[in-house]
Write a structure and sequence with these properties.
Two copies of one chain form a homodimer. The first copy, chain A, has 465 residues and is an alpha+beta fold. The first copy, chain A, has 17 helices and 20 strands. Chain A is globular, with a radius of gyration of 22 Å. The relative contact order of chain A is 0.12. Chains A and B meet through strand 9, helix 8, strand 11, helix 9 and helix 11 of A and strand 9, helix 8, strand 11, helix 9 and helix 11 of B. Chains A, B: Pfam families: FAD-oxidase_C (PF02913), FAD_binding_4 (PF01565). Chains A, B: Belongs to the FAD-binding oxidoreductase/transferase type 4 family. Chains A, B: Its cofactor is FAD.
Chain lengths: 465, 465
Amino acid sequence: MVKHASLPRNEPGIETALGVLKQQFGERFQTGRAIREQHGHTTTWIENQPPDAVVFAHSTQEVSDIVRICAQHGVPVIAYGTGTSLEGHVNAPAGGVCVDLSQMDQVVEVNPGDLDCRVQPGVTREALNTHLRDQGLFFPIDPGANASLGGMTATNASGTNAVRYGTMKDNVLAVEAVMADGRVIRTGTRARKSSAGYDLTRLLVGSEGTLCLITEITLQLQGIPEAINSAHCSFPSVDAACQTVISVIQYGLPVARIELLDDVMVKALNAHSKLDLPETPLLLLEFHGTEAGVVEQAEIFGALAEDQGGHGYCATTTVEERNRLWKARHDAYPAMLQYRPGAQGIATDACVPISKLAECVTAAQARVAELGLIAPIVGHAGDGNFHVSPLVDMSNAEEVTKAAEFVIWLNELAISMGGTCTGEHGIGQGKRPYLDKELGGATDVMRTIKAALDPQDILNPGKVL
Amino acid sequence: MVKHASLPRNEPGIETALGVLKQQFGERFQTGRAIREQHGHTTTWIENQPPDAVVFAHSTQEVSDIVRICAQHGVPVIAYGTGTSLEGHVNAPAGGVCVDLSQMDQVVEVNPGDLDCRVQPGVTREALNTHLRDQGLFFPIDPGANASLGGMTATNASGTNAVRYGTMKDNVLAVEAVMADGRVIRTGTRARKSSAGYDLTRLLVGSEGTLCLITEITLQLQGIPEAINSAHCSFPSVDAACQTVISVIQYGLPVARIELLDDVMVKALNAHSKLDLPETPLLLLEFHGTEAGVVEQAEIFGALAEDQGGHGYCATTTVEERNRLWKARHDAYPAMLQYRPGAQGIATDACVPISKLAECVTAAQARVAELGLIAPIVGHAGDGNFHVSPLVDMSNAEEVTKAAEFVIWLNELAISMGGTCTGEHGIGQGKRPYLDKELGGATDVMRTIKAALDPQDILNPGKVL
């Protein structure tokens, strides 16, 4: 495992705060080892650092109370949604209190006429979409995991639909947030655009629990399109698939999803989800629009793909078939782990300007081969964002070293190409070494903001900066 | 005129800084009265407050030098692009140095393959689009005035295309900025999305010169659509036109422009631009897409408009006709002033959730009538954003009072409907009274950020907060 350094613990403060919280929250205050470990990082090779206690909050007022108590005693506060983050965001390197927001799971209000809604942070994206379906609406951001909307907001999640619908930043109209002193603020209105003051909404979206705890989110929604077509298309190489994606984006085709899978990833999906996708580099596609519009989009895609040797274009014909395809795509991570039983998956998240996509992905494939690693590739190619995931036998020290070397190499490559080390996962603990490399002096400005808004450094310490 | 209070002047600091700047900048340092007044506010009824000197900067290094000198002596620094802002952004209530960025007007780099470019802040939107045209690209944000991209970034401008392409926030990938101590930072990369740290890009976009001076902007571009169709359509009432807009948005029609004009505004445009538009409430439309796509969009619009009594749908048939229509729309402000010669135009900028648009606009019309004002209405109706512009005889004290009353009433109405007092103009001096009403305690968080990043309050003092 990769171990991130523990930070100094404020033992007397923690002891006092835990006592006060136990009084107020009774059964909703938990200190059992299993529950604490489950609220630390559990998804990747980053070592688990459990909090000292977990409190299940039921209201904004309660979250504010918890933060005030922790602020008074100088105790870390870590927000927790579903724990699906990949970079150690929920670890507690200085101990402290985990605020589990999963029971704040109400859809507060849906305004179908305005295509917006307000949700509590514990609502998951699947729960929201189930809630919305009857009204002909959906929320497009889809990071794969059935994450909570609070967590998705905190990490600026995106996923398969971002190429068309943008990221959380583009779809959060406002948040209600508890600041480091327990104050509750609301950062915006339901207007679709505003130039009223500094954009606190977008400052807090993606702040990974280090500037505030998010207690309510106002989201922009989309109407379910009249027609949805899904398909897959094979390519002779990852390069040819990437070149097709580049053409699609440059053409301006409003594709709703365009996902790249290398042959290793396809094999893993076929095995895990009992599919019979052709085991070649593949693009998975989805087109949204009118009946005529999606047909036209698919035709234009077909012509662009053919130029790159694309073949075997195959559209799904039923909703079930379509759901099965995307369910399989969403199960990429468990499918990978099943592909190499006993191995640990390592998340990477490079995102480069689209013109560099083919070069970056093929370089990554070559480096994986050179290092003798097994590392399926899957990605949101339309955004230039892709995941190479080394599957590592953690008992093999040499392999672990090589995997670590690969991760560093890939992040630096993406940055050198004018891209970012993280298109959507966030910095957390795992990507902290790259932030300065990517943004230089801008990180000092981030530090100044952090120090001003959380002078005691109690909000998710040891993350981002 | 509406006079905003002068702020305390640091006379010795100003004198010293001016001496140092004069040495460094020679002819590019100006203190003549006319040039100083031209660099204060000149567009609306807000009184002109000129700076003590104007410096024409030629490079980021020079901007950094100016800010360092001013920081050393505690002197205000005000960025200036084209001076087209409407809320007093470029006024100098505490005196100080205006940094005119209009000569930093180079398009630094265009990456057609990535649909992005880097520009200096003095490049105007028209100059950029002229530069891009041969490459089949355009930059969609269109605030009407031929504003500079630096100013558009600083105020989070939007305009007619925002309903489809978003605002500056959605189209700025990164900025290079000079902070209050003269440091130069870059806030992002060319990746289309990123979760790397706090979103300084979107914090600085719309910060109105109070957190930094913007010295370079990385913009996302669009391919010029295969087909563009423009049209206008008449309605029996503003309410019917608004209801149609609401239907269009709720339907999810990807209209590129949908502008509302009331009959007064149409009369003013006809007179100013020698058009013969029907003098009824009108929607001006534009559809972008494939040849088949725009035809389909126009048909769907037609059906939705018919439901509301829309009639006289008339599409432009040539590029010249289309350009003439939109040129007239862009000349709305001079057209208004010509409509009531000698009057001063007053800008308002309410933006409400789309379901409230009809109610808000018709209430505004009724209030205008009740107060006996003349106030054409034009707006980016698809965003719920509209401008009611009282044309005021400033020598008539009663009329001035009524206009002021109307502005307060409208801003408060928009806020009470879950909207904002400013969809795109920004706060500047004029809208400061409304920020607290709109966002409550969030403005304290803005103040904390301002104090942390500009502890001497030298960057555009007296604005936003």
